[in-house]
Amino acid sequence: MLLAIDIGNTHTKLSLYDGSRHVAGWRLSTNGERTADEFAVTLAALMRGRGLDLGQVTAVAICSVVPPALVPVVTMVRRDLGLEPLVVGPETDTGMPVAYENPRELGADRIANAVAARAEYGAPVIVVDLGTATKWEVVSPDGVYLGGAIAPGVAISLDALVRRAARLSRIELARPHRAIGRSTVEALRAGVLYGFAGQIDAVVDRIQDELGQPAPVVATGGLAPLIAPESRRIEHVDPHLTLKGLRWIHQRLAGSAASASGPAPGETARDRGRPGRA
User: Which residues does the annotation mark as catalytic?
Assistant: First the structure.
């Protein structure tokens, strides 16, 4: 089975796949000081809780935007699983051409999202990742990663507001009852949720204008289920999109290694013969 690991700024997400079937998933706090030993113990305990064990993992694919947190994970995989992990980076052949001016600036999670969105929803497609940052990823009609946009995320924006405003306190993010809040809590919820939903829609409208055609919009990230219902443009919510991207990339490379002449699993005829770099 494939263990996919997405190390984000706030959370580390893990999913176990048996082929294309999602077997189990977990979410941990990202901690750059967690050791390989601690990660191994945690993973083993999580798997035991689902009736699984480390010996069932036959491959590992990782993307990370936190270098200090990546090293112990790679160490654990090599030492405790006896596997060489696929760490997605600028040199990984993902099968998706990249039009970014400097591909080395591109976070691995962003290209994984784009790969998964194209595979699952076709092209063109727009991804909105609602995590620590809010990120828009754009795939052209012919399947090229074009780039996107980045803005401060929902949670960190609210945290910054609370820190700077003496009379405001932390609130639980929940769906507001109305746009005209009749208490400070309601006003904050309305401003945050409706405001960020409007921001998402405004950026999507501009992206679609530049594309010259509509494109489906897929939301992912921890806050996607909360924000998506308030958006007029988000059509799909896919919480595991980044992890699915790792699965698609791993399948492509595993298929290429197994047969240099045939298509990789999940690869379309349009993909074959086209150079890719992420």
Answer: 109
